[in-house]
Structure formats: structure tokens, C-alpha cells
Specification:
With 160 residues, the protein is mostly helical. The chain has one domain: Four Helix Bundle (Hemerythrin (Met), subunit A), CATH 1.20.120. Helix content is 78%, strand content 0%. It contains five helices and no strands. Helix 1 (2-36) packs antiparallel against helix 5 (125-157) and helix 4 (99-117) crosses helix 5 (125-157). It is elongated.
Length: 160
């Protein structure tokens, strides 16, 4: 189990670096969109918003699979996964995310779904801008919580 803790902590840390790059790319795409009035940059914004949430969700799935032994199923599993990560699993792990993070991430979960099921050029530019403005603050909070969780895993791996 100690090896699993170490592997999971390392994966969280690695993914957080990549997610930071996605956040920066999204902000840059929005900046370029405004400078050039080229709405093709908004496609990049939408894709990076989707990538951001999908990256977070992959980490949450990995935590759920590795530690909880289960990932929610059914039509609403994406939402249920966020709920699961906000709950402590007695004797296994503390809550991974706060209610604040869950609420903030839920907005990105909804846009992830929209980006996957409709054409990106039909997305509302103002909404993409609003989400991009919320992206870095959301990531800052989620990153802190995931880094703290990774630290806890490393501590458990060392026998603490």
C-alpha cells in the first residue's frame, strides 16, 4: 500500500504541473482572441477549459479507484465523483476537496459536457471569458487541496 501512496502522490504532483500549463494556455488564448478579434481562439479557450476539468476528473477517478476502491457509476457519475471527493472515507482518507472547490469545479464540469457534445463555435464568448477569469482562482484552491492530499499520501508512505 505504501508504494501505491507514493505513486499516487507523484501522479498528483505531475498532473498539477500539466494543469497549470493548461490554465496558462487558456488565458493566453483568451488574450489573443481579444487582441485579434479572431473567434478561432475561442475554440482553444473552450478546449482548454474542457481539458482542465478532464484533467482534474482523471485525478479524482484515480484517487477513487486507488483508495476508495470505487468510482461512481450511472448517468450522473461525474457529479457524484465530485461529491465523493468532498467526503471523508472513514479509515481510508480525509476529504480530498472542500465544498468550495466542489462548487467551483462544478461550473467547469458543466462546460466540459457542453464542449464535448456541441460545436465549439456555438459557445457564448462571454461565458468562455467568465469561466477563464474563474479558472486561475479555481485552480489555485484545488491545487492547494490536492498538494496537501499528496503530502498526506507521502507521509503515509513513510509510515507516518
Amino acid at each position: 500500500m505504501k508504494n501505491q501512496f507514493t505513486k499516487l502522490a507523484k501522479r498528483i504532483t505531475t498532473e498539477l504541473v500539466l494543469l497549470d500549463q493548461i490554465v496558462s494556455r487558456c488565458e493566453e488564448a483568451l488574450r489573443r482572441s481579444k487582441l485579434s478579434s479572431d473567434d478561432l481562439y475561442l475554440d482553444s479557450v473552450a478546449l482548454n477549459l474542457e481539458n482542465f476539468y478532464s484533467g482534474i476528473e482523471r485525478l479524482l477517478q484515480l484517487i477513487a479507484t486507488t483508495l476508495d476502491g470505487r468510482v461512481p457509476r450511472g448517468e450522473e457519475w461525474h457529479k457524484a465523483l465530485l461529491e465523493q471527493m468532498c467526503s471523508q472515507v472513514s479509515g481510508i482518507r480525509p476529504a480530498v476537496l472542500s465544498e468550495t472547490s466542489k462548487t467551483m469545479l462544478d461550473e467547469f464540469r458543466r462546460v466540459r459536457h457542453v464542449v464535448r457534445v456541441i460545436y465549439t463555435f456555438t459557445l457564448e464568448p462571454k461565458r468562455l471569458e467568465e469561466l477563464t477569469e474563474k479558472l486561475r482562482p479555481t485552480f489555485s484552491i484545488v491545487r492547494r487541496e490536492l498538494e496537501a492530499f499528496a503530502g498526506l499520501l507521502e507521509q503515509r508512505a513513510r509510515g507516518g
